[in-house]
């Protein structure tokens, strides 16, 4: 009788189905985010009549408050498991978008933004522990790279769709409602992924976690992990400059054509989507932290090239900028995936939520600081700003240090 065998390293069918459901939920989720992100300020100013300064201040205040709230929700993941936490995050993220179209007050926007960002941080705090339950060893790196690649695709699809809808106040309100619908749909898909976890014996609830301040004390005393968070913050600041400032810099002060900012975004996303998985897989031949060190090379080269961009011939500026964007995307895709995988494996099983919450807070606050820090440096000069980016990457290298073995879970009580 003929028998069929699975290829080496292939996931069992139910595990593969669980991963497929999770990644389908991720695509739907990020299509909604892509719908909303490019038009958020346009929505509040053009559709809801809120002055630009008030809308920007409200979103910033809500973002900072949401980061703080999101950090302390790590205990929810530890007590109840990542599955429940992800479902709660879908509800927290959908709710504000159902209410935004009837909101005309900046303080209400700030409150709803706090709820949304809290849910967003809860999702990212939960996602890596959920994937860890489906992976062994460095397979986690591949799953995280797949998640990132699909996220880029979803954001691009959503942004393209929003461009068709966002030409009127009614269209902008429809974008908000569609974003809420994508979170609900993603939640339904994720319920399927969580249900398959029970069939495979996967952990859907929390391990017996150290409760209250005891768990947090373990985190704050873990100096190697806190150093890893510091490294992540430095890399996030450096790579954030490529996302937030490079499109602006490509036109002013480098004097590139007006089509260049869009080309920068397309190039960065395309390079990351095409190269992240193969590069992360290649990095499995060495330690994660050595992979992070290697990813610093294209990041530094990108920053150095841009620091001298003002000296380039005007006709060469588009090629210089697009080449720098591609180099930066190579480094960003590798370092971000390897760092979050290292942070997840640094945590004991019963404290993964708290560990990932702290790690995500380090990433989030770096993103909050990026526009203010680099616009101030750009006001001095283009060369100073990009030299500072290179210095941030170089500063992170000695902090990376030798890798440590994954944390072992404590005996359950």
From TrEMBL:
On whether Hydrolase is a keyword of this UniProt record, the answer is no
UniProt key word Cell membrane: yes
SUPFAM superfamilies given for it? MFS general substrate transporter (SSF103473)
Membrane topology reported for the UniProt record: Multi-pass membrane protein
Per the record, the domain of life is Bacteria
Q: Report the subcellular localization.
A: Cell membrane
- Organism ancestry: Bacteria, Bacillati, Actinomycetota, Actinomycetes, Pseudonocardiales
Q: What is this protein called?
A: MFS transporter
Natural source organism: Actinokineospora soli
Q: Which spans are transmembrane here?
A: 20-44, 56-77, 97-117, 148-168, 174-197, 225-246, 258-280, 292-311, 317-343, 355-377
Q: Which UniProt keywords apply?
A: Cell membrane, Membrane, Transmembrane, Transmembrane helix, Transport
